[in-house]
Every structure is written in structure tokens, then in C-alpha cells.
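**Protein of interest**
===
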Amino acid sequence: MKKERNDVTGNPAGSRVPDSKKIHPVEQVNLLEELASFCQTSGEFSTALEYYAQILDLAQRAAQSPDLLLETARKMANCLEGTGEFEKALEMLNLAIEKGEDESTSTEYASALVQRSHILGRIGHYSDAEKDVERALGILQKKPMSRELSDGFSALGSIALRTSRMELARESYESSLAISRALGDREEMGSRYNNIGIVCKNVGHLEEAAQFHAKALGIARDLGRDLQIAIRLNNIGVVEFKRGRWPEARAAWEESLEIFQKRGNKWEVAIACLNVAHAHRAARDFQKAEELYTLSLQTSRENGDRRTEVLYYEHFGELCLRRGEYGRAERILSEGLELAEAISPGSELSCEILRRRAECRIERNEWKDAEADLDAGIELAVSLGDRFEEGALLRVKADLLRLRGQVHEARDYLRRSHERLTEIGAQYESALSAVLLASILAEEDRERPEARRLIAGAAALFRSLGATQDFARAQLVLARILLFEGDSSAVSQLLTEIEATIEETGSRNDRDTLRDIRVQADRSLVSSSVNESNTLAAFNKIVRRIHAIADPEERLQATLDIIHSQTGAERLLLLLTEQNGEKPPVRESRAIPPREWHTTVEVARMAIGRCFDGGGDPILSTNPMRDSRIDHSMPQLERVGSFLALPIAGENIAACGIYLEKSLDSRPFGREELDIALALAAVTAGVVADLQAEEIRNENLRLKHRLGMGEGFEGIVTQSPRMLKIIDTLQKIEGADSTVLLQGETGTGKELFARAIHQSSLRKDKPFVTVNCAELSQDVLESELFGHSRGAFTDAKNAKQGLFERASGGTVFIDEIDKTNRNFQDTLLRVVDQREVKPVGATDPIPVDVRIICAANKELRIEVDNDRFLQDLYYRLRVVSIVLPPLRERKEDVSLLADHFLRIHSRKMQKNFDGFQPETLRQMVDYHWPGNVRDLAHEVERIVAVTPEGGYLTPDALSPEITQAADLDASGTLGEVVERIEQQMIRDALKKCNGNKSRTARALGLSRRGLLNKLQRYRIR
């Protein structure tokens, strides 16, 4: 039956207490001490506590010496500490120390102080702990050498270790070791070896740390001390992990955790869980790692173990970093840093967290904050003598410098990092620095051999560790080296081997790098094939002469047949651009069995379009689904193994190309097939298409917007060709004073454009005044604009200057002018004509020098036709007339504006978000936005206000009317539904083709004239 006890000082219920009538009290105490000591040594702390409680009860009843009470209370506290009950242990020691004040110079009193300091140190109260140790050492150093004196120096070493005073820590532990060795106390010697090993680990002397821990573990195994074995295995795992020996680290940690769990050591279980989680994190088993980190946090909080709680924040933050959750990782690491500084300012914990937070901030492009963390971390690491962290921090600083373009400085930092980490035997971290250094050295011809050596060593280590992601990254650098050396075929083979790993587990930067290298390798093959020295040039001439036949149809078919036979293509299409509004013809080689080629033609159009977009160069893609140049949303691509797209030239064809394809089961196109295809493509008549004039103008406008608008228009966020043309028009009148009429629905940005027109004009240094006609009565409106004389009406006690006078030399913006009555319009007409105003109640006009910009929500032409607006005034105002499109007609701006408003409101409300999820943006783009841009701005402001910060904003954050509108509107007749779908398809295709109508027509399977008719019918611009 399980033993129960009521409290720590009462007798254990059901325990076998020696009969006090038969055994002398002294003998009874001695027997109980033996039993308690045996249970404590065996890790049966609960049973030991029961026996110690009986000793304490006997000692109190028999009025034994205070030393016996102190010794017993201390041993009970030791058992309570072993089960993680620190508060009870402190209560026991506090009571014992208080009662033992009369014996304040005794060895037992000093030992109780040492033990209390140990517990205080474990829960982060280092200052109080150090005071207890100093008092204890003051007592013990006056007495003969003893184990208690050894314990005192050990306690001082632990406090110094936790407060990052490494020299004092090692000196104290070595003093304790010397005393234990002199006393022949092997158990204490093992503890001191373990302590010194921790100091060595913290300053980066990993080989030395491993040696000390091995000695400590050997002693514990010899003595059969399970608890000490587990503690030392745990420390060995930490050192092995830092040395890059992951399998050994994991084995040590798992054995350690098993022992702690069997013994019920809650404190050590928290640490062991944390470390085993590291092993799972390194193996990219993130789910298991997170479970163990969470268990560690829960246990450490139950224990009151703030240091282990800091370690949780540090390592779980790193887990989030490795998963790409940069915002979450930064928040967790910041919390950990705050707690670390609270319990031990300037410790190695702060140093480690600063490095990881800097990595997060680099990923989030917060470079200034990242640099501050790195500089603080490097300074702290140097002051602590922590060469491991110094080396790791130097690498991260180098990465930041590299991103900033400071390549030479980055290289110097990486050399220092690699040297530091190699010196201390931190193989894994040293290999990480080697890879980054090699990526920089690869750029220089003379440095490339060293880069190769560094990559070879790092890759071998990563492979031995099973660090597949790091191995793939190293191979990426090797691929770049091979690319520089011109071995494009080897690059393609290497990328194929690591592609799956990079796509599944690599960072966004890794994936982009892989795709860039693949594109460069493919282009390198193309470039070498079109070299003038290519031996196939002579073959070109022969083929042109042989096939110079009169019948162009036969000539084309023969050319396609030859290309097919020479390249082994499984599909071969010739695409010719439309002529006279007809659907573009498509021809296939006669040598290919007749098949349905309509699914292939869409891929062919896309691929050949990419050729022209890229300046007319051919495209070879050995893996289209991983090619950054290709639109991966096309489902037809899933069956394509490789393709060649060859633009061809001729006099009577605007644009054309040849498309060759192989399936996934076939060997990809290589150098030989490319050479032959290029040579034979020269035989095919055609001309390279010049881009349509409209596309050139639109592209120039987009480029102009990306490079920065002229002064005044830089605040307008848009990528819409229609809006960009409006801006271009307005910039052309920046030197004029022409009256401008802005028309558009509410919320389309009329006032924003009015201010931009003013800021881009010669009047920008003069006042810009605005009045909203809908907000004022007609009498008040005239008074506001034109002013009034004293006594002009009942409340006119003083004369008032109107907005036209106050805006002298500047601009007056009159908003919602369509809301005014005819009397006001007559008055404004005179102002526009004569450039003078007459204040209400005055007799003499006042000349004014202002530019007038008006805005209307309604179309004034219709208002004039319905006799609701003065015709003469309309013609005076529309010198420059601009119609701002509603947001639903410029869908391409929705995501751009949403991100813009998210940045504004997040900064204003001091919240951080990673952005919108793609599905969230899709629903926002699909919504019709009745309030236009203002409506969108308010929606984003609401989302930021009501959503807890962190992560990506999901569709759940959107207002119900937006999410409901995301479903297909199937109301109305079949014809109406079809028209809505057709309009949306046309808009989507225009956006995808960057407004190019010819390409849009091809994508939709229409003639250009057919597309233009539909654009006119649906009023799509």
C-alpha cells in the first residue's frame, strides 16, 4: 500500500516506525537516518521525507542539539528540492535557520545557508543567494577543510555562472574540486567536474567541456547515482549538440529524460524536455518539438523555474523562426529577453536571444533593429568570453551586411566567424558560416577554389548529420559556383537532386535562389547555343537553300517535320500571330499522329509570349513547374516534363514561334536538341513581333510609377494603366493654371487628386483651400467662398474674408459642386470668367488670383442635359476634365491599396501583422466596393482595430458583406449571369496580360476585333 503523510513534519501514515520502548532514542535517530539516507540516495524522496520527519519529531521531543535540527531540516529541504517543491524547501530552511541563530557559527548553520542559496539561485533570486553564500563561507573558512566548505565554493560558482561571471565561476568550482580531491570525496569531485564542464561550454571551449562532462559521467556511473547520471547526460547532450554531433546529443538527452521521468524530478524534466525538443527541431519534426517545448514551459512555471522559462522562450522562438513565422518568433523572443534581463542582466541567455531575434528582424526587413540586436549581442558575447555565441553572431551580422550590399565587410565578418567556431570545435555552426562565406567567395574567380573547399566540407558534415535542408543550401551555393564555371548541365542535374528539399523545407529566399539559378542555367545553354561560333550555323545555310521552295505551306510543314525528327519532341506547334482580325493559325508537324492539341496551345502561347517578354530570346525549361519564369497556375503544365520555346522572324508575320514539348517520362531537352532546333528555326519565315504601341505606353507608365511620380503625385497608390494615364495627363499641365473638373463616385480620390494637382503646380507654395458644397447651405456657402461685408445679414457683425481671397496665389477646391443651386452657379460663373469676387453685401468686386478645381459625384453632362446644372459653367469648368474610375473597374489596385492601408493603420495602432492571406485578398478583389477607395480604407482600419496582432489576416477578419459577395452572383436570367462571368474573365485576362489586348485576345480564344467589341459593349477600359 502506498505510504501517505499528512505534512512534512508529521509521521508517515502506515510507515514502520521503530518501537521507541525497545530502542534508545539516539539509536532510533541513527537508524532512521540510515533509512532516510538510503531512500534519498535512491531517489525515493517521498519515503526519505517520511523518515526525516520522524527524526525531526524525535529531536524536538528529546530537545536534541540545534545542529541535529538544522541537519535534519536541511536534508528534508534537499528532498523537497529533488521533487521540485522549492517553496516548501525554502519554508523548511527559513524555519531551521531562524531557530538556529544561537548556533550561527556552526558548520550545520553554514550548510543550511549554502543550501538555501542553492534553492534561491535555482528560482532566479541571485542577489539573496550570494548573500547567503558569503555568510556561509565566512563561517566555514575559519574551520578545518570540510565537504561543507567545498559545497560553499560550489554554490558561489553556481551563482557566478548564472550571472555570467565565468572567471569567478571557474575559480570557485576549481577550489571546490581541490577540496573534494583532498578529502577523497569522489561523488563531490564528479559534481565539480560537471560544473567546470558547464563553464567551459558557456565560453565556447566545447572540447574541454566534453572532457570534463565525460569524467563526471564516469564517476556517476561508477557510484550508481541515477540522478547524477541523468544530469550529466543532459549536459553532455548540450555540448554534443553545439559541436554538431546531433545523434549523440539526442541519445544522451533521451536517456536523461527517461531517468528524470522515472524518478519524478520535475525540475530536471523541464530541462530535459527542452533539450529533446531541440533534437526534434533539428530533425524538422516541428510538431513533436512544439509539444515538448510546451510541456517544458508548463513544468518550469509549476516549479517557479524562471531560468528554464527563459530557455523556453529562446528555443521556441527559434522554432517559430525556422518555420517562417517571423512575427510570432520576434514577439516570443522579445518576451524571453525581457525575462532574461529581469532575472540576470547581461547573461549568456540575453546574448543567445539577441542573435535569434536579429535573424527574425532580418527576415522581416527590419534591418536597423536587427543591427542593434547584433551589435549588442557581439559586445555582450565578447565581455562574457562566449566564443560560440560571438562566432554565431558574427555570421548573422555578415548576412545582414551582405543583404545591404556591403560584401567586403560581410566577407571579413564571416572569416572571423568561421575561425572562432572552428577553434572551439563547433562543427555545425562553423559549417553554416562556411556556406555563407563560400557564397560570397564564389563571385570572384581567384576565390572560387576556396569556396569549393568550404562547400565540400560543410556539405559532408550536413549529410552526416542528416541536416537535409542545410545540405541542400550548401548544394545551392555549389550550383552557383558551377554556373560561374560554365557547367550548366551539371547545374541542372544538381538542382534536380535538391529541388524537392528546397521547395518543401527551404525559406522563401532559398526557393527564389533555386529558381533564379535554374533560369540562369537554362539561359546559359541558350546563350551558348546561339553563339556565332556555333558549328550549326553552316547547317542553317544548307537547310535554308534546300527548303527554299515556292509553296510557303509546304515549306513550313517540311520545316516542322525536320525539327520534330531531329529533336525527338512529342508535341510540336507553330503559332502565328493573328492577321486581319482572324484567329491566329496553329500548325503541327505532320510527323506527329493527329491528336487534340488545344490543351497544348495554351501552354505554347504562354511560353512563346515569355520569349517576347524576355527580349526575343528562346526559352529552355527543364522543369516548368519549378521555373520562376512560368505561370504555374496553368493546370496543363502538370503533364509537361520539359519544353523549348523558339521565337522566329519573318517579313509578313507580326510575331510567331515554335513550341516543342516532352512529357514527364521522357529525358528533358538538352544542349544537342536546342542547337538543332535553333538552327532549323532560322529556316521558318516570320518576324519577331514588336510589342503593341499600347503595351509600350502602359509599360512606360508603370515604370514611371515604380521609379517615382513627379512631385505631388507620389502619394497616389496605383498600378492601374487607366489611373496611370490620368496621372500622366495631369502631369503635362503642371505648368498651367487651367481649371480642372474631377468627376467620379464617392471615395474614388477626387480630393487626393486635387491636392496632387496643386502640389505639382507652380502654386504649390501658396494656400490650398477646400470647401464641400454638400455640407453648407447656399447662403453660408457664398459667404464662405466670397466673404461678406459688415452688416450684410443679421449676424454679420464684422466683415469676413472669403476663401477665394485667403487662397490668393493658390488653389481653391470646390467639392460636390453638383449639389449647388443655380444662383450659386451663376455667381461662380462670374468668378471663373472675370477672376474677381464680390463679398455678400459689398458693392465693389475684389480681384483674385486663384486656380479653381471642382469635383462632382455625378456626371455633369447628364445634369446639364436635365437642366440641373448651368451649361455655361460646365463648359468653363471642364477645360481639363478627368473621370476617376471606381475601384471595381481597377481591380488590380485592390491588393496594392489594402497592403498600403494595412501599413498605415498598423503603424497608427502599434500592431504588427504579416499581411493578408491570398484568399483574403482574393475576396477583397472580388468585392464591388460601393464606397470605392474610402470604403476599402475603412474596412482595413476596422480589421486592424478588432483583430489581435500577429500572423496573416484570414478571410474571417472581413466584414460579412464582403465574404458573402465572394460567392458567385447567380441572380437574374441565364444571359445576365453569363455576361457577368464573361466580364470578369475579360478583366482577369487583361490583368494577367498587363493590359495588352492582343495577348488578352489570344488567351481568351478571341480575335482582336472580337475583344475590342466586347470591351466597348461592357465599357471596360
Summary: The first helix runs from residue 25 to 41. The first strand starts at residue 4 and ends at 5.
